[in-house]
User: What shape does this take?
Amino acid sequence: MMDILKVENLSKIYGKGENQVHALKDISFSVKKGEFVAIIGPSGSGKSTLLHLLGGVDTPSTGKVLVDQTDMYALGETQLAVFRRRQIGLIYQFYNLIPVLTVEENITLPLLLDGHKVNKQELHDLVSTLNLEQRLNHLPNQLSGGQQQRVSIGRALINHPAIILADEPTGNLDSKNSKDIMDMLVMFNKRFNQTLIVITHDERIALQADRIITIEDGKLAKVEVIRP
Amino acid sequence: MNIINKLTLRHMKENKRRTLVTILGVIISVAMITAVTTIGLSFIDVLKRESIASNGNWHIQYNEVPVSKLPVLEDSLYADELILEHEEGYALLSEQGLEGKDNKPYIHVLAYNEAALNRLPLQLLEGRLPVSPNEIVVPEHFLKHFNKDSHIIGETMTMTLGERYNPDLVEEDYVDRLDQNYSILFDDERHTKETVIGEREAEFTVVGIIERLGDEYGISPGYSFLTGLDPSKLPKDATVTAKLYTAKPDQEIFKEGERLKHALSIDEYYINTTLLRYSFVSSHDGFVTTVFSLLSIVMGVIMIGSISLIYNAFGISVADRSRYLGMLASVGATKRQKRNSVFFEGMIISVISIPLGILGGLAGIAITFAVVNPTFRGVLGLDVSFEVKMNIWTLLLTIGISLITVLLSVWWPAKRAAKVSAIDAIRQTQDVKLSSKQVKTSKLVRKLFGIEAEIALKNIKRNKRRYQITVFSLVISIILFMTVSYLTESMKQALFSTNSGVNYDLQVNYGVKDDPNLELLLEFDGITDYSIIQSTQSSARVPYQYVPATNVSAIMGQEEDIQDDLYYDVFIQALDDEELKEVAEYAGVDASLLFDTSHPQAILYNEISYYHEREKRYVAGKVLSQVTDIMVQLTNWTYETSTDESGETIYMSHEVEGEAIELVGGTDFAPMGIVRTTHGPNGMTLYVSQAVMDKLNSNIEPRVQYNVYIKSDNPLALEEQIRESQHFDNYYISNVFKHKQEEEATMFILSVFSYGFIVLITLISVANILNTISTSIQLRRREFAMLRSIGMTEKGFYRMINYESILYGVKALLYGLPISFGIMVLIYWSILKTSYYPFQLPWVHLGILFVVLFMIVGLSMMYSGSKVKKGSIVDAIKQENM
Assistant: This one.
């Protein structure tokens, strides 16, 4: 199976001189299409930094990130934005929905930015899977945390991106909602062969993955294969 | 300092930009409040000083008061000082061994008492003023004309003084005394025919040199000298001109004037209404009411704008600090403590801004006056300048209004701060309590303009309060700009409607139709343009239905419906052929019609300006409401003399019907020399050809005036040249250049003040808008970062920003323009009390408004947006997650 994601010698340094911080040091790994990878590590280890670099929302100091064989950081700013829109799905701990857009609009936002028409059937299927049929015209402030995170998942999936990146997607949820969210993500991974990379400090979540990458002190400390 | 205030100060320091913008905005507001309170005082003060400098500092004048009745005036409560002038008489220049001109052979001696020397216009150039009746000061131009210099001071002059009389009108009980208003009387052979009566010897010591006195006109036959006046030394039957000066004039002065008139048994007296007006004592209520109305409107509008700015700034501060305030609430801060934190911020801002604002306002006014004064002084030729006038009361008023403005502005944000609870602050739900209905938008928006426009519109609809504040600030700015622009244009119009619209510099009146000296006159250096107009006067009756209602009531002086024909003075102006063709073209009339003497036709000059006695205001408008197909039947008055049985001469007059003349058009075009204010509400001016004029005059004895109207690049020098030339001794010369200069200077000064205000108002608005929009964008950093993270391009981001700014601008115009129009109508009504002119919208300013508004909003958003765009997506997303 082909590598959907390839990371080569990725480093990120913040600050200058004496105040320099090496958040990431020369990280290299790859992820196959349809794989579920969990990235774990202690606080401040650089996991979120890694995720942001994989998502194209930050710029590496050195190294490359190739998504579906495209060198992301060789793209121009506009091209990168469009690439992100179509190939990357980002899910955050605090949902980060647009408060003035309804559930339907938040989910379809990447399509709308592309100026594409929404396929009603596809949307209906996705929304049903996410259990949000009754909430399509609600605003984020009218939803619970779990519902908001499901909207966030829907937004990440609507364009069938190359990879989904989730940064502590259950960090702000209770245990029941956390389980529901992870079940959904795993379901998408399995059923639709959706490549999924999740940052978590929750061992139970990590153990659901195919592979666990451990980051410590900005370096790739360990790669464990859970499900070959 | 308690912890709440410490936190407040720290927050202000952390948000330096916003704090500084707020301080700057308050400084500008206070400066403008200072400016209004100062300008009002300073403006009235300069008008008062100008009136005193040109006309003297007195309030009531009585002419020919017998010396024996002076105690009546001295006893008046309004006579803090009694100013006395006495005509000492005329003496021949030849007595001094000097040869004057035929029309100026005299020295004229005027006597002033001490009060007159202090309070009447007088400019001492060298030496000192006379203190006794045997001292004299001479005018500078007298020295120039006779090649003398200041060595004359100390010399003795002996004169034989007498009074000039018209010998034709000297009878037993009546003598027609001639003063400086009357030129030398000549007979047909140009010999002096006036007589001098009552000669007496007088000896004077010259003690000083003065500028030419105001009573010496171009036609005056004598050089006016000035001596001291001691009333006790005057003969019992002598009369003086007496003027009363009071330190505290009030409305009762008009009654006092009437009372003294009866006490002195005098027919006429004069009240110095101009000076009284500037002491806010006026018989024309319109002026005082207009000044106060307009100042109040301006102050009101400034206060609203200032409150909007300061309220906005504090509102944003509270929103920004809601997390801090919530935390304070969670650790036990009371409502009062949270509220007081906002008041504390207001106090800090006031303590810094008010003194700086007052100083800034005074400095701004001082600089404005410095710019304006050279024009002001130069035009009037006086030493009167604008001075910054502020007393303790205006200072207190300024501080009071400023403090009230700040207090009103922070009141509501302080109340809001008190209500912020811990949980609201943490969740930040206060500002995001939305329903779908609130942010519902039409599908068309997305279809036509894309998702970026839809998000922009939804952002406008969310957080109603912040959006309303921004739109309100913009609306206030629009109102301020439009109303002050309109106010400026209105005041110019009002001024114009009270002024005569003079369009030439000199008028020279000559005696005969084909005067040979005319060619000579037109060859003088310095003439840039001229117009030769012959004019004659007739009368006519005009049906009332052709006359505008305002003019009807002015002519008839009553309110009831008028159904009669109205009596008009008709002034017929014969223009030369080229000029007449130009007028015809302007009026859209076939010029050839005007040369047909078999059927005389004329174009009406259809502009008029006059003072409406009954309505107590100035009116500017049209002479007639219809300008074609009207036959004007001219009538003329002829006089006959006959002798009755007792041998007395009887003068009889009767109307003679003249020619009928048809009106074929109307125009507002005025060739040089035609002035719209000359003739009152029942005057009309007709333009005809020379041929038609001759036809109209063919059956009557015409009284034709022959005038040349001249424009010059140096009218004062040209006038002097003409007067000094022997050929034009008998010609009447009028120099209106000075008057025109005053009009133009007044308008220039008005514009400087008004547009200075507009600039300051715009600065307040810019500060306000920048503050609001930049903070609004700052507070949405996370959202913008999120949009970028899911793939919104830079172009898309700026498109969204632009849509938002367009929406702000359009909404602000939708509210701002109708309100502005309403205020303009109020201003128009205020000024109607003093002057009448048609209502006109300031279209040019409207255009400028559109451009500037969208520029300001757009640039604010672009600037703020670019800052957000440059920031890291990651940091922005992380920021609110912490």
In short: Chain B touches chain A through 34 residues (CB under 8 Å). The CA atoms of residues 633 and 660 of chain B lie 4 Å apart.
